[in-house]
Design brief:
By secondary structure, the chain is mostly beta strands. The protein has one domain: OB fold (Dihydrolipoamide Acetyltransferase, E2P), CATH 2.40.50.180. 6% of the residues lie in helices and 46% in strands. The strands form two sheets. A five-stranded mixed β-sheet has the order 8-1-2-10-9. Strands 3-6-7-5-4 form a five-stranded mixed β-sheet. Strand 6 and strand 7 form a beta hairpin.
Length: 160
């Protein structure tokens, strides 16, 4: 076998995804190439604005930029984050020049997925969640929702 041939016994590594806990039993992933950074930020550092939807937590200043932070589970129609949290786990996502902070229950690390593992979204998910999905993956004993970064950032819910 030449150096350029692939070994069929060697597992495919797949693409890297950031794993986010949205609810106790619901995990989601974003392609790691769309993640600028992950941080844990005290609630006091998020500036709330009046007359905004409940899922908009406010604005933060990060690396000479001001960006919105949203409660991702709540925006997706799931249970909102606990209101009495002392800090938020935030994944800052980037799509072209757009930055957005996504607050979640917890950031659970990185996992690798191949395109073959990603299946069509299951029908038993919350109906309004389907429009944000590229698919889902059952990996070991957990189901992962593969979120579409473009659908999340371009949702009409975030339009001015």
């Amino acid at each position: 076998m030449s150096v350029l041939e692939t070994n069929p016994l060697q597992p495919k590594l797949g693409d890297a995804y950031l794993k986010l806990q949205l609810e106790r039993e619901i995990l989601a992933v974003f392609l790691l190439e769309h993640i600028q950074e992950v941080l844990v930020m005290p609630v006091e550092q998020i500036t709330r604005l009046p007359s905004m939807p409940e899922y908009v937590l406010g604005l933060i200043h990060r690396r000479s930029k001001v960006l919105w932070v949203i409660d991702l589970p709540q925006m997706l129609g799931l249970e909102p984050l606990e209101p009495n949290l002392q800090q938020h786990h935030i994944a800052i996502v980037r799509l072209e020049e757009i930055l957005l902070g996504l607050a979640v229950q917890q950031v659970r690390g990185v996992t690798r997925l191949t395109a073959e593992e990603i299946e069509s979204p299951l029908d038993n998910w919350v109906p309004n969640l389907i429009s944000y999905l590229n698919g889902c993956v059952v990996q070991q004993s957990e189901s992962l929702l593969v979120l579409d970064i473009q659908a999340v950032i371009n949702t009409p819910k975030l339009a001015p």
